[in-house]
Amino acid sequence: MSAATKPNRDSDQYDVVILGGGHNGLVCAAYLARAGLKVKVLERRGIVGGAAVTEEFHPGFRNSIASYTVSLLNPKVIADLDLHRRGLKIVERPAMNFLPLPDGGYLLTGEGRTKSEIAKFSQRDADRYDDYCAKLEAIADTLRDLVLRAPPNVVEGLGVQTVRELVRTASLGNRLRHLDLEQQRLLLDLFTMPAAAFLEEWFESEPIKALLGFDSIVGTYASPYDPGTAYVLLHHAFGEVNGKKGVWGHAIGGMGAITEAMAKAAAEHGAEIQTDADVAEILIEKDRAAGVVLKDGTVVRGRALAANLNLKLLYTRLMPEQALPSDFLARMRNFKCGSGTFRMNVALSELPSFDALPGKTLAPHHGAGIIIAPSLDYMDKAYRDARDFGWSREPIIEMLIPSTLDDSLAPKGAHVASLFCQHVAPELPDGRSWDDARGVVADLMIETVDAYAPGFARSVVGRQVLSPLDLERIFGLVGGDIFHGQLTLNQLFSARPMLGFADYRGPVRGLYHCGSGAHPGGGVTGAPGHNAARAILSDLKPFSFSSWT
Ligand SMILES: Cc1cc2nc3c(=O)[nH]c(=O)nc-3n(C[C@H](O)[C@H](O)[C@H](O)COP(=O)(O)OP(=O)(O)OC[C@H]3O[C@@H](n4cnc5c(N)ncnc54)[C@H](O)[C@@H]3O)c2cc1C
Q1: Residue whose CA is at the smallest distance from ligand 1 atom 53
Q2: Is the CB of residue 308 less than 8 Å from the CB of residue 21?
Q3: Which of 2, 21, 183, 202 has the greatest count of CB atoms below 10 A from its CB?
Q4: Is residue 422 within 8 Å of 411, Cβ to Cβ?
């Protein structure tokens, strides 16, 4: 304990103290409190929700300031926490995606229109599209089945734990056995291949490859020609909206509506939620995690701690070094965080008019995910540029205008847009700081949209700019990594955060992982929070665990 620590006055002993009030921390808290445990959530910011929050970023204009679209949120979590009754309403987009092209053409996908739109570029691609979706869907189903389970954990020696993990491995094998041989080959492809090579096996025309390939670099600092990016594409396919698989939608009120409903569930089950509670240090006593010290010196004690915050931040900045096995700490220092993301929220006086589909009157493409990345080569160049220069001179942007679906976000007649931009380097070359580059890069993002929708720049009446450094400062996302660590094969499944620690238990007794640094990784899923709660209950309250699946 540091010298500045205040004595352990007025701090109750909790069963579980949760470090971070992001959506996974709240989910974990709700399940644990529901099972009768005394739970405390400590959140550094003034509001809970982590990267899933709605905030006013310009007078009169509110938006989901970080994560901005919903699909991955697990239906079991929605049902168990009764999120719909607690105010959550998710609506579908009128069209799924809009890909404007530099030559004035476009691809507009969504229910009932995707195949005819693809056929504008290639009849062969249109004919293959259903088969592609069916094959991907079968694999996504397998993944769906695995997200709410702890992956097999690699353990040393022989003991009860080894037997438990062998059973888990056998059960996984059994699940994969349902896939036929060709599906197993596809699964291997998706886990290892570059997205570009995977998509090129299916399609010949550039727009459909670009539109599908965009999902392979979202939150991933890589080129679609890099091995492993096909998995990122799959990661974005296992969601659903209101029972419709693979669809993305909008939470009315923004992403904060999801976490407000989760916080309600946790509080109504008895969890205490404290904001402005900045955890500065983990207390270790007798080789066990015993509590935390807040920045103001307050001590909060718990029989168990569950870390929702980024694990690299936890282990390299908040934990006494000597409490950790040296090999674990060395690997954690090398845990790759940095997703190449630059995020803007803009207040608009009017809807954009695209060269490809002119008009400022609300039309289906305004409510779609608008993707500026016309080809896989464009994405590759964006990545290489960012590596060399710090940011892409022709960046990739997904723009969403949620006020087209939700009138609670902007004044009547005006709009808000999310700009999710890639690629930028998590750290700039030559020691330059994002504090100096933020404005220039923000202007570039606006100009990039303006090139496809002339007049867009003029319609921007307010903006919030979040560089990777800002994402780290505000949300604790190390390197601005939206997923709490890259989704590469060496940081996935049984290897998340590393081999030997995939069962939501950390290297110190009493310390658990309940955030996106654990399986199945990032995205607003609720899955790590759910799975960690199960591990904690099985240790602290085995009887309630057996009645909870
Ligand atoms: C810009 C951006 C866009 C994204 N877009 C999408 C999207 O559209 N759809 C989607 O599904 N996913 C999206 N994601 C990913 C998704 O939002 C995250 O992976 C997910 O929200 C992480 O949830 P979490 O609960 O695991 O962690 P977080 O949301 O990161 O929560 C961790 C919490 O810990 C708190 N904390 C940190 N340090 C401390 C401390 N010392 N003491 C106390 N508390 C602390 C933080 O303030 C935060 O509230 C996006 C993320 C970002 C950043």
Answers
A1: 482
A2: yes
A3: 21
A4: no
| Predicted local confidence at residue 99, as pLDDT | 98
Place of tokens 């807040």: 294
- Closest of 485, 482, 453 to residue 466, by C-alpha: 482
Q: Residue 79 phi/psi, 5° resolution? A: -70, -50
Backbone angles phi and psi of 132, in degrees to 5 = -55, -50
Question: Six-digit token pair at 136?
Answer: 């991907």
Rounded to whole angstroms, how far apart are CA atoms 234 and 220? 13
Does the bond joining 520 to the residue before it have cis omega, within 30 degrees of 0? yes
Within 407-532, strands assigned E span: 415-424, 460-466, 511-513
Which of 280, 396, 339 lies closest to 67, judged by CA? 339
Give me the sign of the Cα torsion angle 433, 436, 437, 439.
positive
Atom 35 in ligand 1: which residue has the minimum CA distance? 20
CA of 225 to the centre of ligand 1 (A): 27
What are the residue ranges of helices labelled H in 87-205? 114-119, 123-147, 160-177, 181-192, 195-202
Cα–Cα distance measured from residue 382 to residue 165, given in angstroms and rounded to the nearest whole number: 42
492 alpha carbon – ligand 1 mean position (Å): 18
Q: Which of 409, 378, 293 is nearest to 3 (CA)?
A: 293
Q: How many whole angstroms separate alpha carbon 332 and alpha carbon 413?
A: 49
Between β-strands 299-307 and 13-19, what pairing exists: parallel, antiparallel or unpaired?
parallel
- Which residues make beta-bridge pairs with 49? 22
Q: At a CB cut-off of 8 Å and minimum separation 6, what does 317 contact? A: none
The tens digit of pLDDT for each residue in 230-253 reads 999 999 988 999 999 999 999 999
Q: Report yes or no: 468 and 480 within 8 Å, Cβ to Cβ.
A: yes
Q: Is the CB of 27 under 6 A from ligand 1?
A: no
Cα gap 397→391, rounded to integer Å: 13
CA 448 to the chain's CA centroid: 25
Q: Is the pTM of this model over 0.85?
A: yes
Q: Which atom of ligand 1 is nearest to the CA of 474?
A: 47
Determine phi and psi for 348, rounding to 5 degrees: -120, 140
The tokens of 153 are what? 């954990």
How far apart CA 429 and CA 409 sit, in angstroms, is 37
Both structure tokens of 30: 């709700």
Q: How far, CA to CA in Å, does 84 sit from each of 75, 90, 379, 454?
A: 11, 9, 38, 40
What residues in the chain have per-residue pLDDT under 70? 1-12, 158-160, 163, 544-549
Amino acid, single-letter form, for residue 101: L
Joined together, the tokens standing for residue 347 give 């207040």
Which is it for strands 244-245 and 391-400: parallel, antiparallel or unpaired? Answer: unpaired
Question: Which whole-number Å values give the CA distances from 182 to 2, 138, 144, 191, in the listed order?
Answer: 58, 11, 19, 14
Query: Of the candidates 24, 19, 309, 273, which has an alpha carbon nearest to the alpha carbon of residue 148?
Result: 24
Ligand 1 centroid–CA 524 distance in Å is 8
Which of 277, 222, 219 lies closest to 468 in space, CA to CA?
A: 219
